[in-house]
User: What shape does this take?
Amino acid sequence: ETGVTQSPTHLIKTRGQQVTLRCSSQSGHNTVSWYQQALGQGPQFIFQYYREEENGRGNFPPRFSGLQFPNYSSELNVNALELDDSALYLCASSSEGSHSGYTFGSGTRLTIV
Amino acid sequence: AQSVTQPDIHITVSEGASLELRCNYSYGATPYLFWYVQSPGQGLQLLLKYFSGDTLVQGIKGFEAEFKRSQSSFNLRKPSVHWSDAAEYFCAVAITSGTYKYIFGTGTRLKVLA
Assistant: This one.
């Protein structure tokens, strides 16, 4: 079975720009969650998508938004980028109703200059 | 409030020595607990998980963890560390009421001396 794949692996943007990060979930998983991991910190929950709808959100402003597609892949969009948005963005997939845990992708390293 | 505490930011051990990484959690319900490992610039790899049953759980790469409800702890152990174990280790608790999500600790960076 394929794991979770994320693209791109690295990205550099300037303040005020917009960015889209992509994630393909593991085969058989219908739920996608996004986490932000700042340097030296643990991952922080951004939001989760199930059946193409957001069904949970962490403490992140509305300029962080997402999409989930019928094939369960997902996008994370961030508008009006700020320097503090520099982080590793991790996508994780799981099966709704299952507590077996996430499968994480390798992440996208976003640098804001 | 739900939280995970990893009191040791950095730990250094010699190759072949034993290892224990500490994790304490705060969560009102029955906890689902996880340990992940992260190599530099990489994503998270699951080492082991605890849901119920035997409080001593075995994971990959020779790791084990023990759940102690009375101490709200889930410490990770390995009897003999290998140089390839150098990485950052994260403990997490799953929040199962409402949106399923993890609360992570801030991580422990392990350095292994040859």
About this structure: The first strand of chain A starts at residue 5 and ends at 7. Chain A has a mean pLDDT of 92. The CA atoms of residues 19 and 78 of chain A lie 5 Å apart. Chain A is about 0% helix and 50% strand.
